[in-house]
Amino acid sequence: MKVLTEKIEFTIEYELDVDGWYCASIKEVPGCHSQGFNLHSARENVLEALTLFPEWFEGLTDAKKENTEKA
Q1: N or C: which end of the chain has fewer CB within 10 A?
Q2: CA–CA separation, 10 vs 27, rounded Å?
Q3: How many domains in the chain?
Q4: What is the dihedral of CA 48, 51, 55, 56, to 10 degrees?
Q5: Is residue 31 included in any domain, yes or no?
Q6: 28 domain-assigned
């Protein structure tokens, strides 16, 4: 059996809202947002949100293929 692996990198952007909560978004995945009372919990929550919708990964794979083909 042949095993293939692929590394995908994400950029998490954090914003502090007026109520003191950190809002986290994964820039490469439109609509993937979460929040937390500190940076650590915001990071954990947005990464969990990413795992809840596998179709996001399909979109990332398609976008990566497009970028590779353009280069």
Answers
A1: N
A2: 7
A3: 1
A4: 50
A5: yes
A6: yes
Distance, CA of 38 to CA of 15 (rounded, Å): 11
Closest CA to 46 of 19, 18, 26: 26
- Coil, strand or helix: which one is 44? helix
Q: What span, in angstroms and rounded, lies between the C-alpha atoms of 43 and 70?
A: 32
Low-confidence ranges of the chain (pLDDT < 50): none
Taking residue 26's Cβ as centre, other Cβ atoms within 10 Å add up to: 20
Helix (H, G, I), strand (E, B) or coil at 63: helix
Would 48 be classed as within a structural domain?
A: yes
Label the pairing between strands 33-36 and 12-16.
unpaired
In whole angstroms, what is the distance from residue 24 CA to residue 17 CA?
A: 11
Q: Is the pTM of this model over 0.85?
A: no
Is residue 4 a part of any domain in this protein?
no
